[in-house]
Amino acid sequence: MRLLIVGTLKGQLTTATKIAMDNGASVTHAETIEQAMNVLRGGKGADLLLVDVGLDIRDLVMRLEAEHIHVPIVACGISNDARAAVAAIHAGAKEYIPLPPDPELIAAVLAAVANDARDLIWRDEAMGRVIKLAQQIAGSDASVMITGESGTGKEVLARYVHSRSARAKRPFISINCAAIPEHLLESELFGHEKGAFTGAVARRIGKFEEATGGTLLLDEISEMDVRLQSKLLRAIQERVIDRVGGTKPVPVDIRIIATSNRNLSEAVREGSFREDLLFRLNVVNLKIPPLRDRPADILELAQHFAKKYAEANGLPVRPVSTEARRVLTANRWQGNVRELENTIHRSVLMAQGDEIGAEAILTPDGDRLDLAKTAPAVAHATLAAEQVTRALVGRTVADVERDLILETLKHCLGNRTHAANILGISIRTLRNKLNEYADGGIPITPAGNGAPDYQRMASAG
Length: 461
Known about the structure:
Elements: E1 2-6, H1 14-22, E2 26-30, H2 33-41, E3 48-52, H3 57-66, E4 73-77, H4 82-91, E5 95-98, H5 103-115, H6 125-137, E6 144-147, H7 154-163, E7 172-176, H8 182-190, H9 207-210, E8 215-219, H10 226-238, E9 240-241, E10 250-251, E11 255-260, H11 264-270, H12 275-281, E12 284-287, H13 295-312, H14 322-330, H15 336-350, H16 369-372, H17 376-388, H18 397-411, H19 416-423, H20 427-439, H21 453-460
Parallel strand pairs: 1-2, 1-3, 3-4, 4-5, 6-11, 6-12, 7-8, 8-11
Antiparallel strand pairs: 9-10
C-alpha cells in the first residue's frame, strides 16, 4: 500500500501517516499538484492520493487522465463547509475526510483501498489444487501464466502469489493490456522521455521501472500487439528496457505474472502471439477452473459476498437459504465470480425476512435467476427431474436412471434435444437408452402426438 499525501497537511495527518505506516504502507508527501505529478511520473507510484481540499482537485484529475495515471483520490480538509466536500466529490474524489482525522476512519479507508476485490476465497478441491501449486511456486522468481475465463479471479490469484513471494513488501503493479490503446501501451510499459511524442510533457517512468524489486502483472497479455511482444521478450530475457525516445538501456528487477482468458497456443498457431514469448511467460501455468466447476466455491463466495454487502449497505447479515443455495449451484455462471458477486449484491438489497431466499436471487432486470433464461418446457422438465431424485434410497442405479430419463423426456413433451441437454448426455446416448427401454416393453413419450414409440414401431412392422 502506497499513500501519497498532497498539500500542506503533514501536521494534520500525522495520525493518518502513522496508521498507514503501522499497516505496512509507505507514505510520500508532495506540497503541490505539480510535485505530486512528478512523484507519480518518477516511478514511486501510489495506491491512494490523500489531497487537500483547498487544491484544485479537478485540475489534478484532468492531469492524471491526460497522462493515463489511474489512482483513487480522497479529499480532506479542516473546513466544515459542506460545499467544499461536495465540490471535491464532483471533481472526481472518491471520498471526503474531515480533519483532524478520526484514526478508525483513516484505517478503514486505507483497508478498503488495500483489500478492494483482493480477497481469495475458496473451498472447492478443484480450486484448492490451483492454490496449492501457487503456494509451491510463490517463493521463486519464475514467470507465471494465469489462465481462465473472464471473471474467475486471475488478478486476485496474481496478488496472492505476490503476497507469498520474497517480493511481497515491494510494489505489485498491474497493467491491463486490453484497456490501453496500442500506441500508448509501449509508453505505459517502458516509459518515455520528454518530447518523445506529442503529449509527452515530461519524462514518465513506465510500469517496468515502477515495479522494480516487485511484481508486474500483465493482464490480458493476449491482446498485446505482436510488434510490442518482441520488445517485451527482450525486456524479460535481458532485464533491461528502453524508454520511448530514450538513448540508454535501463536495468529492471521484476517478476512477471501474465493472465489471459484466451488459449495462447491457438493464438500462436494463428500468428497473433509469439511462441518464444509464450515459452518465457509460461514457466508455470495456473489454470483457474470456471466457477460452475467449483460448486463448493459458489456457496463459500455467496456467503462471503452476502456478509460484505450487508455490512456495506448497513443491512443485517442474512444466511443464504437452502433453496437459494440450490438456485446458485444450478446456475452456469458465464461471468464467473464477477457475475456471482453482482447477483449476491442484488440479493442482499432485495431479500426480506431472516434469510436470503430463492426469490431474491434475481437477474439484473429483476427476473428469477432459475427461471429467467429457461424455456417453460425445459424449466418444467428440470423441476420434474429434481422430484424424481428425491427418493433414491433402496433403488438400483439403473432404475433411478431410467425413471429420470423417462420423466425428463415426458416433461420436455418428447423433445429429445431438450431432454439430452438437461440430463447432460449426448442425443445419441439418449436414443440408445430409449431403444433399450422400448425393447423391454416400456412406453416412451413420442416426439409428437400419438402412441408411444414402441407401439408405433410394432404397428409399422
